[in-house]
Amino acid sequence: MIYVIYGEDDFSKKQFLKGLLESLGHEDVRDANTTFLDGSGLKARHLMEVGSVIPFLAEKRLVVVESLLAQFEVSSRGPRVRKRSHKYDEVLADWERVSESLELIPETTIIVFTEINLNRNSPVVEEIMKCSEVKQFRPLIGENLRRWVNNRVSELSSKITPSATNALIEFIGSNLWMMENELQKLTLYAGTDHINEETIKLLVPRFQDANVFKLVDAILEGRSFESIQSVRNLSEDGKHVSYILTMIARQLRLILLAKSLIKNNVRGNSLAQRLGLRPGFAVDRTLAQARRHDSKSLTAAYRKLLDADIAIKTSSLSDEFVIETTIVDIIHNDQKQQTKVSHTGSR
After folding, report:
1. Which of 6, 73, 164, 276 could form a cystine bridge with 80, CB 3.0-4.6 A?
2. Residue 257 has pLDDT above 50, yes or no
């Protein structure tokens, strides 16, 4: 059997490979019947030799070929290999009739080509797909992600409330590696009881960050009631107003910095490092906010938060009154500015 697996959902690809590994039999014989090959520079002849080996004390053996097909990406500028090494014709000639050779691989061998992306216009990809089962692993979203979380909790012999499922998805998103880590911890704590939002607040230290993201979104999108309610909820959870104010201001500063980095074409791990954040949820949410909101509104809101901080430290007004009136003021001024821009544009 030959598979081509690809997609951005690396967790599900690893789980698929794990299932194939477990199908080989007892752990003692798996290593002897599993071969991982680096696709970069791999010769077709070498793959055929490895694939033709008879299993040792097992019915099947597994050969995993990593990132072979990425060499044959074709774009409007021509083949990727040609641009990189000027040996595209030579490499292509080695693989262009590979389907005929793959059909000779014994049924006792499972070959898996694993990729991130798959360019179906490549002649080599087309050739391999002739004799392969192709599986795409997209990041899970919406109901599919919700179903995955609920099923995984059941597999771990626990239960979870719908609101807790939604809270985890809101916080973690489609990162199944992070989701798996948190579910392992939560199910171990909850046992056969339900995992609820209180359990998440207790065991997931970064869950409060998700609440701050939601609060900042609500403020910048003009949702006054939701913004003030979020502040009150955080206060009830034991967060002091000064802390909440600091976290909102910090997030606005990060959004402004992210906008500047995006403008200067800083990407990936370099961008996360410049923001001082670990790649993942926090970076993704910050970038999403940076793309949605303009610098002028962000800067104006940031300045009002600084004024609020001074007021909390120097005035006799209650902290709660200061932060709530500041939020209303930010939203009112932003809406006023948008109305002014709208009227100017209609003239």
Report:
1. 73
2. yes
**CB-based contact 210:166 (threshold 8 Å):** no
Token pair in block for residue 36? 């991982």
What is the rounded CA–CA span in Å between residue 84 and residue 68? 15
Residue range 163-177: average pLDDT?
Answer: 84
> Which of 127, 168, 119, 128 shows the shortest CA–CA distance to 148?
168
Nearest to 250, CA basis, from 306, 315, 322: 306
The H or E element containing residue 164 is helix 162-172
Tens of pLDDT, residue by residue over 1-14, are: 999 999 888 899 99
208-346 under CATH 3.40.980.10, yes or no: no
Q: Do 132 and 98 form a contact (C-beta atoms < 8 A)?
A: no
Other CB atoms within a 10 A radius of the CB of residue 63 amount to 20
CATH number of this structure's domain 2-136, picked from the four choices 3.30.56.10, 3.40.50.300, 3.30.1330.60, 3.40.50.1100: 3.40.50.300
Check residue 128 and give its pLDDT.
Answer: 87
Do residues 95 and 105 touch, judged by C-beta distance below 8 A?
A: no
- Residues 252, 293: Cα–Cα separation, whole Å: 10
Instruction: Select from 166, 159, 128, 140 the least CA-distant residue to 47.
Output: 128
Tell me the pLDDT band of 197, cut-offs 50, 70 and 90: confident
* Per-residue pLDDT tens over the stretch 280-293: 777 888 888 898 88
Pick the CATH number of 143-203 from 1.10.1130.10, 1.10.8.60, 1.10.4100.10, 3.90.220.20: 1.10.8.60
User: Rounded to an integer, what distance in angstroms lies between the CA atom of residue 36 and that of residue 29?
Assistant: 15
Using DSSP's 3-state secondary structure scheme, residue 8 falls into coil
